[in-house]
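HUMAN: Mind making up another protein with tokenized structure?

ASSISTANT:
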Amino acid sequence: MKRLLNHFLKGLAILLPIIITIAVVRWLLVTIEKWLSPIWTAIVGEQYYVPGLAFVSFLLLALFVGFSSRWGIINSLWQLPGKLLNRMPLLRSVYGTINDVFEMMSGKNFAEESVVMVTLPGSELKVIGIITKKSGVKNDTLSKQLDEQHVAVFLPMSYNVGGYMVIVPKSCIESLDMKPAEALQLTMSGGLGKGYQPKSRD
């Protein structure tokens, strides 16, 4: 009976991530199709509309937005809706949180070689962190509080979109050959991820 239960749990461990991933992708496809298909139906007519056209148009729109954001004026226009949402009391928290999570997961605001192994002062405990701020950054409140010997490091938490920001001496950190997004994925999975093995820089 115990062996049968172990096989069952192992089967769930294999199947559930696949099922959940497919469900999330399906939800995304259905949502985009539901929102954009009425627009295409009004443009080309219901008899000429092909299922999936809405999703393809969304991908092309995302590509166009990303490509055109290279120019400052157009990028400002794309940023305008977000700025308006940030001014609305109720929506500001929701939009700000979602936006911060996406930027954090993509590593957008992290510099290269910013993933470090932090040895906590007075301890042999080591944790993976990401340098978020150094001294010398103009017009930055946190940077003004740092001297040249200290850096601000974000320590992500496992199985949770959160973490701690700590100020540590540079002597307590060593660089890791890892991208910020990979470090976040590894840490948030509690080290159970198999896709990457960190190695220290020489």
Notes: The chain has six helices and five strands. The longest helix spans residues 2-44. Residues 198-202 have pLDDT under 50 and may be disordered.
